[in-house]
Amino acid sequence: MPLPEREFLLDEAYELADEDLALDFTALGRVGLADPEPSVRLRAIQALWESLDPAAGDLLVTLVETERDLDVRAAAARSLLRFLEAAEYGRLDERTARRMTAALLEAAASSVEGLRAAAVEALGPSGDPRVPAVIEAAYESGQPALRLAAIRAMGYSAREEWAEYIAEQLAADDPEMRFEAALAAGALGSEELVPALGEALSDDDAEVLFAVIEALGDIGGDEGVELLESYRDEAPPGLEDAVEAALEAARGIQFRRFGELP
């Protein structure tokens, strides 16, 4: 099959799977991962964006270990994040998780910034005791891509120790960093972040503000609900629905924390 057709087939598979989660293109994706063309391998990684198929996981970690094309290697590294998340919930065998973690730790020591950033981000959910030092080194590196990757990893980590780092970046000068910090705050779910998120409700960047509102909904708790209720009447035009959705989510979490039905 000619290269354009192989690329088109995987692009279509990705779009169809995104529209209908019942569709499964895992077998096609596995074939694509072994394609001789980097552009096809990249599309295959994208097409497998939700797959936890063990055979696909083996192929992806092999790409992290041996792939020569750096874009493909970085994409494969980033794709291992979902496998490590599954491992933390006992849905991935320990041998595979150890191999993936080892491959990512090696990639995180790379001198290539894009590869290192992808690996740091993917290591976020890992419970390996070596990972926090890798995340902190990326955060302290002074390199924007690595700092963003570190913030994302902190959000995926379920480690309360990162809350103060995320809170600090909610007030960063760079709107992209503030946006990623808001996403990380919601992912981490720590109530320690609610005061900093409350201050961030005055952010003048619409995307950041939307992410902050969603994060408060994701975290919930009495303080989060109070902040959203107070903010509802002063929210900028166009964000009313976002505030209402966040309030609904926050109240649901608040009730569940008291052991009641949402």
Automatic annotation (TrEMBL):
<dbReference type="InterPro" id="IPR016024">
    <property type="entry name" value="ARM-type_fold"/>
</dbReference>
<comment type="function">
    <text>Catalyzes the hydroxylation of the N(6)-(4-aminobutyl)-L-lysine intermediate produced by deoxyhypusine synthase/DHPS on a critical lysine of the eukaryotic translation initiation factor 5A/eIF-5A. This is the second step of the post-translational modification of that lysine into an unusual amino acid residue named hypusine. Hypusination is unique to mature eIF-5A factor and is essential for its function.</text>
</comment>
<dbReference type="InterPro" id="IPR021133">
    <property type="entry name" value="HEAT_type_2"/>
</dbReference>
<dbReference type="InterPro" id="IPR004155">
    <property type="entry name" value="PBS_lyase_HEAT"/>
</dbReference>
<dbReference type="InterPro" id="IPR011989">
    <property type="entry name" value="ARM-like"/>
</dbReference>
<protein>
    <submittedName>
        <fullName>HEAT repeat domain-containing protein</fullName>
    </submittedName>
</protein>
<dbReference type="Pfam" id="PF13646">
    <property type="entry name" value="HEAT_2"/>
</dbReference>
